[in-house]
Design brief:
The structure is a homodimer.
Chain A lengths: L1 H10 L4 H7 L3 E6 L4 E3 L7 E7 L2 E6 L5 E7 L4 E3 L1 H6 L6 E4 L3 E7 H10 L1 H27 L2 H11 L9 H8 L3 H15 L2
Antiparallel strand pairs in A: 1-8, 2-7, 3-6, 3-8, 4-5, 4-7
Chain A binds a DNA duplex through α8.
Chain lengths: ~190, ~190
DNA sequence: CGTGGAGTTGAATACGATCAACACCGGTGG
DNA sequence: CCACCGGTGTTGATCGTATTCAACTCCACG
């Protein structure tokens, strides 16, 4: 909870007093490594803010293969917009790749925060625009880049995550097989002695 | 302009009177087919709402190949968030695939609309969440689906666009070559006599 | 007409996927 | 303490899908 408070006070215009008013909307929860946080087809009314640990959103295709949409390490948000905003069931799964502590954030929290603190509206909007920007970038990468380029982009975007996430997961994020990723890494090692 | 007004009144909570107050922030513009609307590296402070015609956002890779991020036919929005919200230069190009009439929408318009009409805030937010949802879907498609599946998804998502957009453009949206798309279509024709 | 872009088709190629085998490590239980 | 096991990562051989390059047709448009 402290992590979330620090995060908010550092990044958003929410003050200490305003935070206290909103606190009742927040709940802390922990998921042991391996827990399913959200299952495809289920519903949920909250966003997860990761205080520590690592969550991951992924889908399963008809062959049972996993495709990772997003990783959420400390200070990241993750949530299912289908449930929260569109009264539909979740289209992806979320699980915990590490023991993870989260703050559950209701739609109500976001609403009230905007009432209590008018500037929070702009902050929240900026967050959404940033999210869109980031996803555009990812789409462009999937359209334009080779496996090797995607991997280099990945380790640049998440330098500290590379060691925490298995290559199986990374590969499923990059849209390649673990075997291919292994070969990409081998080729890079030969090139630059990484 | 009328198209935009109709659209707003149908989809958002903005009333006729409120619209009149905001009108001064809006400008109509037309782009002949083939015009560059925004160039990578440039800046812009507006979103484009397409009243008629068709815009398209795309990037160029280092081999000069085009990769289409988004099509924007009638009643769609398109814009460069890097410029508008993050004071950076555009990372993609936008051009007109048809003679296109747009309404230019400033950040100010969106701000004032939220001031004048409090419910517009929710509408705008929903638009952003919907956008994110849509892009998640696209990312998942690029990760999980074959060329054929992607094409089928495409014609389902944009049934009326298929005939207006050249296969070269569609291929660049799907992340395959025009030749591959041609073969995919041939295979489908054989299968289902489309 | 004739020119150039769009679309199709064929042949050769390349990149990543698949399948299979194996080394390695960490955890578990005998 | 060691044997076993399952999961991870590596490597090799083969396969398949999409790419590349090239030739050709077909229009639309000058």
């Amino acid at each position: 909870m402290q992590v979330f408070k620090d995060y908010l006070q550092q990044h958003s215009p929410i003050t200490e007093e305003q935070f206290q008013l909103l606190r009742k909307e927040l709940k802390v929860k922990t998921y042991p490594k391996g827990t399913m946080v959200l299952r495809e087809g289920g519903t949920t009314q909250v966003f997860w803010f990761v205080c520590s640990g690592l969550l991951r959103a992924y889908t399963l295709d008809n062959q049972g293969k996993e495709h990772t949409l997003q990783f959420a390490p400390e200070n990241w948000w993750i949530g299912d917009r289908n449930s929260i905003y569109f009264h539909e069931s979740a289209v992806f799964n979320i699980d915990a790749l590490e023991d993870t502590e989260v703050v559950l954030i209701t739609k109500n929290f976001l609403e009230e925060a905007q009432t209590i603190c008018p500037d929070f509206r702009k902050y929240n909007e900026l967050l959404l625009h940033n999210n869109i920007r980031h996803m555009q970038c990812r789409i462009n990468q999937l359209l334009a880049a080779t496996a090797e380029e995607r991997y280099l982009d990945f380790i640049q975007l998440y330098p500290n995550l590379t060691l925490r996430i298995s290559q199986i997961m990374i590969a499923s994020y990059l849209g390649i097989t673990p075997e291919s990723l292994s070969r990409v890494r081998k080729a890079l090692a030969k090139k630059h002695s990484y």
